Amino acid sequence: MRMSTFRRDWTVGMLITFAVAMVTATANVMAEDFGAVHYDPKSDQLIVTVMYDGTNPNHHFSIHWGRCHKIHDELHGPARKIIDVGILDDQGNDAAMKSYTEIVKVPLAGMSCRPATVTLWAPPNSSTSIDIP
Length: 133
What we know:
Largest sheet: 4 strands, mixed
Shape: elongated
Strand order of the largest sheet: 3-4-6-7
Oligomer: single chain
Structural class: alpha+beta
Helix content: 10-25%
């Protein structure tokens, strides 16, 4: 059975509309990820490369500390400490027009949760971990 011209044109039109809506929706989602992350013992801080998409390079990142947790793993060795650190973008809803890179310094002076594994998080779901002394 052949599809009528009207029905075929309507179906094609709806598919095009849906595709355009999907492309437009993804253009507003900000990509955020981590590049190189290392511990600088001289300054006692983490040096974090944050990669993000936006309309401008003037994004500012804030650091949000989680609680220190002590993990007991009898199978793999002695207890260790872990802590989550959120790195949040002040323009998290900026349209993804161009890619940018920013170096974020995370000071560790005064952090009593040591030695520890620090897990850095950034929306929507990027993370990386590093052990600090």
